[in-house]
Design a protein that fits this description.
Number of domains of chain A: 2
Oligomer: homodimer
Structural class of chain A: alpha+beta
Distance between the termini of chain A: 58 Å
Largest interface: A-B, 65 and 65 residues
Strand content of chain A: 25-35%
Number of helices of chain A: 11
Largest sheet of chain A: 8 strands, mixed
Shape of chain A: globular
CATH architecture of the largest domain in chain A: Alpha-Beta Complex
CATH topology of the largest domain in chain A: Fumarylacetoacetate hydrolase, domain 2
CATH superfamily of the largest domain in chain A: Fumarylacetoacetase-like, C-terminal domain
Number of strands of chain A: 26
Chain lengths: 417, 417
């Protein structure tokens, strides 16, 4: 596919994240406008509530865009999602007859504040990157036992905490928690000293299933509304002490950041790619009828307090072993009801190369090999004042489908009582 | 405390679950009334929406009882909860001047259907029963390694799935899932053959905290709205294969049943009792300023299809090592935001004796010692058609604070594709 041209000039640039081919969905406010649904186009945001109020788009007899979340649109289902996208393309294409009316409701991106794009129903995080699982497993259990016995048979996942999913730009206090140094008899309670990021893609479930329903992988793919970048902040020292036998809990509960723009499945369609050949055959309920991953370039950027941004890792979502539809089908395989607004983290996306690792735990090999920044300082884990930024885009022919940034700055831990 | 007498005769019986001292909160409907808030009193249900509509109770300028959940009442906070309880006691006491008006809105319990009493925000399950953790640890890791090293230092918990918390009386299909027999090379996908229950108490969080807040144990106690019985259905074979390294997932996601009546903290106040003496001192953030457990008699009842109910275990909530306020304080210790409607499972409540174990896994010692029922059949795990019932009450002086039943019938697994 090539660039779809728009009458909004900035959307036709080869290096904008938001050409007409993309049209990602977010929630924005300004000094005068309450938070509401918006669509990114070039360096502008389209006020969907205003467009709807003027009947330029009609999805439902009740308004669905004058609210600070896209859940109402999701509830309308995939046919309505397709109608919305084609209508937006009509309105914003070079030959749109409605250019004058629409132009009144474009707001410069620089003038808006971005908010959480959805109300997160529940958050589940997976562990579906083979390089990541192998790296972490090697550090924790040795190279022979790196992958758990179940890993090649199912997308391992665990329930995370939805209440602390925050939008890019939200500052995050370093968490306190129980930490037990290897040479200590007992744990202490204090600030994490091994604060990490996890580079992930988040899939947003757009339609619901009932208790007992078990969608196929193909049906699961149809249920997905879109994708965001996701940083699954992780306190490795808290995690190491707490995670046996029931999994990560407070080590992950303090914050999960997502990028503000939901990139739709429709925008990503030209970039579908397959999961890798299987070492062991998957059970039939996990079979993929077509390519379910996407070719999305990803990078991790670190910006020290007052310093410059520096890329510390580059990888691609096409390296994952399990796709989001496989994860969703597995998630519902017991009959677990899924809801619109459920957020599924892909698991950390690490490539085969050392500089393609999606966590500092891997990049610094557990702190044994700190990375050196351009300013001469080193990092094993995140320092107070560091801003961690995830970035991603799919590269089309003369255009890119960008995700925008998923950024978060770490503030010092709050004092303990 | 002794029995508070009511003009509703059935509430004055020594063996009703719902004397005036109790006043638990639920959601009910009838053939003519949509689901709404109700209060159990003796063998009647008080229609709170009607009582509110007639200005017999005024908690807020907007109605809060004409909805199918108690979340709006929770949002009003502990002072409103106290006002509500004292007003209900006034209206229902023997000497109430409003008896005639109130009597119009009492509906026989036998004529109502009960629904989920709250919208569950998120569900977290703990592992805070020492006998249970020791029993399970002994079976899985041997007696020397029964308790994980962290167990005596923190209430171990994991995030569960809120979307499948269901009210007592909801039938549950036996889940399908990945199962790997010990002697097989590979897993298969099929019905769980080791379907179990877990006898738990559920604490309902009634007030919210913001990201970064870290309530003390005393503050956490004030945040709790009330308690329900909770059956954390568990597919042990699915769990055994999936739970390493990130904890239980589909083994627990297919259903969690709760009793329909929220027994308030106020009703349980006379039954406070302490957690046991600590083998190792807890960190200060987990210190309890006063007794935080309750003396609640609990039993597990099994009813085979078409057969009679039989008690298969009796225990008490006072055997727990960690209280719900300790669990909540730990849950928020990283700064994790908590919300009204969060549900915290206590963990399986097992006593020291063999017949005081709160799961079939423990009662049958992993299937090695099946229990024999009165009808001559045996059980290692739950059979299709079995109804599993949890029951509980605190025993006062001439009255009881009952929880009603938490029941669920297991239907055969749905066929797999």
């Amino acid at each position: 596919m090539t660039l779809l041209t728009s009458w909004i000039e900035s959307a036709n640039s080869a290096d904008t994240d938001f050409p007409l081919n993309n049209l990602p969905y977010g929630v924005f406010s300004t000094d005068t406008l309450e938070p509401r649904c918006g669509v990114a186009i070039g360096d502008m945001v389209l006020d969907m509530a205003a467009i709807e109020a003027e009947d330029l788009i009609l999805l439902h007899f009740d308004p669905v865009f004058d609210v600070p979340y896209w859940n109402d649109v999701m509830d309308l289902g995939p046919e309505a999602w397709a109608t919305l996208r084609s209508r937006l393309i009509e309105l914003l294409s070079t030959d749109s007859p409605d250019q004058a009316k629409v132009a009144l409701h474009l707001i410069p991106m620089a003038d808006v504040r971005l908010h959480m794009p959805i109300v997160v129903s529940e958050y589940t995080d997976f562990y579906a990157g083979r390089h990541h699982a192998t790296n972490v497993g090697t550090m924790f259990r040795g190279a022979e036992n790196a992958l758990p016995p179940n890993w090649l048979h199912m997308p391992i996942g665990y329930n995370g905490r939805a209440s602390t999913v925050v939008v890019s730009g939200t500052d995050i206090h370093r968490p306190n928690g129980q930490i037990k140094p290897a040479d200590a008899d007992r744990p202490y309670f204090g600030p994490s000293e091994r604060l990490d990021i996890e580079l992930e893609l988040g899939a947003i479930v757009g339609t619901s299933t009932d208790l007992g329903d078990t969608p196929s992988v193909a049906q699961a793919d149809e249920m997905i509304f879109g994708y965001v970048l996701l940083n699954d902040w992780s306190a490795r020292d808290i995690q190491a002490w707490e995670y046996q036998p029931l999994g990560p809990f407070q080590a992950k509960a303090f914050a999960t950041s997502i990028s503000p723009w939901i990139v739709t499945k429709a925008a990503l369609e030209p970039f579908r790619t397959s999961t890798p050949e299987r070492e062991v055959d998957l059970l039939p309920y996990l079979a993929e009828p077509k390519p379910m991953l996407y070719d999305i370039n990803l990078s991790v950027i670190l910006q020290p307090d007052g310093g410059e941004q520096q890329v510390i890792a580059r990888t691609n979502y096409n390296t994952m072993y399990y796709s989001a539809p496989q994860q969703l089908a597995h998630h519902a395989s017991s009959g677990c009801a899924m809801n619109a607004g459920d957020l599924l983290g892909s698991g950390t996306i690490s490539g085969a190369q050392k500089d393609a690792r999606g966590s500092l735990l891997e990049l610094s090999w557990g702190g044994a090999e700190p990375i050196t920044l351009n300013d001469g300082t080193t990092r094993s884990f995140v320092h107070d004042g560091d801003t961690m930024i995830l970035s991603g885009h799919a590269a089309g022919d003369g255009y890119r489908i960008g995700f925008g940034a998923c950024a978060g700055t770490i503030l010092p831990a709050k004092p303990t009582a």
